[in-house]
Amino acid sequence: xxxxxxxxxxxxxxxxxxxxxxxxxxxxxxxxxxxxxxxxxxxxxxxxxxxxxxxxxxxxxxxxxxxxxxxxxxxxxxxxxxxxxxxxxxxxxxxxxxxxxxxxxxxxxxxxxxxxxxxxxxxxxxxxxxxxxxxxxxxxxxxxxxxxxxxxxxxxxxxxxxxxxxxxxxxxxxxxxxxxxxxxxxxxxxxxxxxxxxxxxxxxxxxxxxxxxxxxxxxx
Length: 220
Prior knowledge:
Elements: H1 4-16, E1 21-30, E2 33-43, H2 44-49, H3 54-66, E3 70-78, E4 81-89, H4 92-98, E5 102-105, E6 110-116, H5 117-124, H6 126-129, H7 137-142, E7 146-152, E8 157-160, E9 164-166, E10 169-173, H8 174-178, E11 185-191, H9 198-219
Parallel strand pairs: 1-7
Antiparallel strand pairs: 1-2, 2-4, 3-4, 5-6, 6-11, 7-10, 8-11, 9-10
Keywords: Membrane, Transmembrane, Transmembrane helix
Protein name: LPXTG-motif cell wall anchor domain-containing protein
Transmembrane segments: 198-216
């Protein structure tokens, strides 16, 4: 998997501008299906200050080994600041490789995802990123870099050895993860039962029917 040039390129971009937001999203739907995408947002003035564009970033990513990844443009407003960026979606070959991290305990009826830190370090190539122009991963956090790993599991998440569980998603600060040396793997356990969304879906349908009825009555 061609991660290394990608990680190096992203960090070089981060060195140019302080406030950058990014998310690595991994969703394990079941023991046979997983998806990964990466979202990166830059303040709108970044593109003006450095005379670049979203298309140039796309081209750079393609040059650095991500030509097989699909990309979508992003635009968000955060605390009154406009951010522009990209969402890059992993190809099927990458998604299939994620399945190797999944284990199933049929006795306990649990899903378990265990990601070795060696795999994480390969993804970000930390050996090359720890000292670039006297910057370090810790310095990047001080500069305003916000980079998280978000992992979604099938069923309800019971426990994780890292990060926080929020709305059934494990959120891990990647800079904290990459700058520590005590934890050798990410371990997450969820129940082998799918969440029941029927009550929520029913409420949505009922609400839409009420609104539709109201519109029809008003039109008469």
